[in-house]
């Protein structure tokens, strides 16, 4: 990632500003597991802090390890009691069922291309492109993913160069020069955004 950060800073003045101001971004990484998908579900349209709080309660309810079997044992009512919305509880139970029945084999995603992995992920109830992007970037560590549905990315880009990226097409066009390291560029923009909102 260090080489990619330096290359991006050379070719893009905006990313050069990020690097000079805050240094390289952290290597945010998550395990490629069922628990990571559950956390991604919890992070949809809420703050990271709120999602983490609910996930921590879930881990406690699961005896310290969030697995598909233990989530099934907690059940829909148990998930609701610890703070899951009705919709997110439904998504999580369905995901646990898919994993337990081997309709969704998370371990196989490592061998898939980005497009193949995305298709398998988005075929699951409640997991769309944003969820797939986060998993590809943070769990599978794919270098060229561009999560245009991510609000922090869009706000960070606008803050950096004053552009209007409310249209996905404009955001994608802005990120073209960052290939084949759009995941790394995204991390740099997140780094800027998170530092600036503290």
Structure notes:
By secondary structure, the protein is an all-alpha fold. The chain folds into two domains: 2-28 and 145-196, Endonuclease Iii, domain 2 (Orthogonal Bundle), CATH 1.10.1670.40; 34-138, Orthogonal Bundle (Endonuclease III, domain 1), CATH 1.10.340. Helices cover 64% and strands 0% of the residues. The chain has helices spanning 2-11, 13-22, 34-43, 48-61, 68-81, 86-100, 114-122, 129-138, 151-161, 168-175, 182-196. The longest helix has 15 residues, at 86-100. The protein starts with a helix and ends with a helix. One of its GO terms (cellular component) is protein-DNA complex.
Short structural summary:
The chain is mostly helical and 198 residues long. It folds into 2 domains: 79 residues, Endonuclease Iii, domain 2, CATH 1.10.1670.40; 105 residues, Endonuclease III, domain 1 (Orthogonal Bundle), CATH 1.10.340.30. It is built from 11 helices and no strands.
- Percent helix range: 55-70%
Oligomer state of the chains in this structure: single chain
Total number of domains? 2
Distance between the termini: 25 Å
Order of helices and strands: HHHHHHHHHHH
* CATH level-4 homologous superfamily of the largest domain: Hypothetical protein, domain 2
> What can be said about the biggest beta sheet?
none
Please, what is the average pLDDT?
96
CATH architecture of the largest domain: Orthogonal Bundle
Bin the strand percentage: under 5%
Q: Would you report the number of β strands? A: 0
Q: Helix/strand/pairing class, anyone? A: mainly alpha
Our Rg estimate from Cα atoms comes to: 18 Å
> Shape, please?
elongated
CATH class label of the largest domain:
Mainly Alpha
CATH topology of the largest domain: Endonuclease III, domain 1
**Tally the helices: what do you get?**
11
Stretches with pLDDT under 50, minimum 5 residues: none
